[in-house]
Amino acid sequence: MDKGLYVAMSGAKQTMLAQAKVANNLANVGTTGFKADLAQFRSMPAFGEGFPSRVFAMTERPGFDFNHGALITTGNDLDFAIQGEGWFAVQAPDGTEGYSRAGSLKINAAGVLEDSHGNLMLGEGGPVVVPPFETLEIGADGSISIIPLGAPANAVELIDRIRLVNPALDEVTKSADGLFRRKDGEAAIVDGQVRISSGMLEASNVNAVGELTDMIELSRQFELQVKLMENKQENGRTLEQLLQMSS
Predict the structure, then answer these.
(1) How far, CA to CA in Å, does 231 sit from each of 89, 224, 234?
(2) Mean pLDDT, range 179-189, rounded to an integer
(3) Is 13 exposed, middle or buried (0-12, 13-18, 19+ CB in 10 A)?
(4) Are 39 and 18 in contact (CB under 8 A)?
(5) Cα separation of 79 and 240, whole Å?
(6) CB 198 within 8 A of CB 144
(7) Phi/psi at 18 (nearest 5 deg)?
(8) CB 3.0–4.6 Å: which of 15, 51, 102, 128 could bond 222 by disulfide?
(9) Following DSSP, what letter does each residue of the chain receive, concatenated?
(10) How many other C-beta atoms can be found within 10 angstroms of the C-beta atom of residue 27?
(11) How far apart are CA 113 and CA 122, in angstroms?
(12) What phi and psi, each to the nearest 5 degrees, are found at residue 35?
């Protein structure tokens, strides 16, 4: 294959992958606690028979933007935002443990505390089960206290504590379901220093203007690469005609 055509073809393909990353970030501008994906291009040698004299473009995901999103005051008693570093530990639908900063909580029909994505909030012994109550309060350390249904106002019971963790950022990666998990598959230990604020949510950290600018730039790059492939194809047809005339 022509060297220029190969480079243009691989560049167009990888540009489409980069556009998918930008599209995913833009789709999650309004997703609570979302962390933007990062992407970068680099050239890679094409190995095979003979010398590696050809290169191709590759889009890779070097990591994620771990900067915190803005805090939004909601006034909802079941909305929580992590103060500084840390994560909520949740149980994904597949039963695995993941980490999230999405703190919009609710109690489902089975009396289990879950986040807005349907992931179960983990406590000291598994998913947090909340018995019928008159009032419920979650402290800054994740402790969950209730006054049981029908009990007097002074009958406060500590039923569980939301599992708050803070693994090193270089130890976690994002999964396809949007949750972060430890790379070694192990569960992170509870960190007693992590604190949460009630009545607040952390917004997505996606910079919509920056992502839109990137999308425009990537679209132009894709058009240039397609144009280069068309030029190479036209050059090939012209060369074929000249060879036919000379034969």
Answers:
(1) 53, 10, 5
(2) 94
(3) middle
(4) yes
(5) 68
(6) no
(7) -65, -35
(8) 15
(9) --HHHHHHHHHHHHHHHHHHHHHHHHHTTTSTT---B--EEEEEEE-SSS---EEEEEEE---B--PPPPEEE---TTBEEEESS-EEEEE-TTS-EEEE---BEEE-TTSBEEETTSPEEB-SSSBPB---EEEEEE-TT-EEEEEETT--TT--EEEEE--EE---GGGEEE-TTS-EEETTSPPPPB-TT-EEEETEEEPP---HHHHHHHHHHHHHHHHHHHHHHHHHHHHHHHHHHHHHHH-
(10) 11
(11) 8
(12) -110, 125
Distance, CA of 95 to CA of 126 (rounded, Å): 11
Asked if residue 16 lies in contact with residue 222, where contact means CB atoms within 8 angstroms, the answer is yes
| Dihedral class, residue 219 (left if φ above 0, else alpha if ψ from -120 to 50, else beta) | alpha
8 has pLDDT over 90: no
The pTM for the full model equals 0.82
Judge whether 184 and 172 are in contact, CB under 8 Å: no
Give which of 200, 164, 203 is closest to 81, Cα–Cα: 200
Q: What is the CA radius of gyration of the chain?
A: 26
Interval 73-86 mean pLDDT: 95
CB under 8 Å to 191, separation ≥6 — which residues? 86, 164, 165, 166
Does the structure show a pLDDT above 90 at 47?
Answer: no
